[in-house]
Amino acid sequence: MSARPLIDSVEFASAGEQLSGSVPVSEFARLGDSLHDAAGALQFEVKGGRDSRQRLRLHMTVTGKVDLLCQRCLGKLIYPLSIQTNLLVLSNGSEADTGEIDDLDGVPATAQTDVWSLVEDEVMLAIPLAPRHAEDQCSPAVKAAGDPAASPFAALAKLAQELNTKNRT
Ligand SMILES: [Zn+2]
User: Fold this and answer.
1) pLDDT tens, position by position, 25-49
2) What is the Å distance from ligand 1's center to 134 Cα?
3) Distance CA 114, CA 101 (A)
4) Residue 82: which residues within 8 A CB-CB, separation 6 or more?
5) How far is CA 150 from CA 145, 157, 166, in A?
6) How many A from CA of 158 to the centre of ligand 1?
7) What separation in Å is there between the alpha carbon of 164 and the centre of ligand 1?
């Protein structure tokens, strides 16, 4: 397991540093209930810099896909992500500026900013609250299982059929 990268957000942004890497989806504990499974990894890139008003910011991109749990059929819903965002570094001086942050998200000015956690924040914002397949792609569990005989519903149907047969004899 690779170490979680920590950055000093102020230094990182003012020096215009860059960091890229990937995070296993299994690291995103807060996504837990939304996930069908924690397979795969997301790619991210963080670049430090300043905005047009010379405020320190982090530009972040996150790409990849997560396997969400379809709320209708409980099947796997592959959800592609392509996130681009600017995070304002909230240093002491800019806290008075909070009203001027516009619609930008902020990151605290700390020496131990957890990059994976920032990535997770963005993923949480990007995924739907109640993910669902499109109507024509959503299949009941019987179909999704591939082998109808293996599904609990098929087993129930078979049982019902047997009972029916017995009742008739
Ligand atoms: Zn579905």
Assistant:
1) 999 999 988 999 999 999 999 999 9
2) 7
3) 21
4) 61, 62, 63
5) 7, 12, 23
6) 24
7) 31
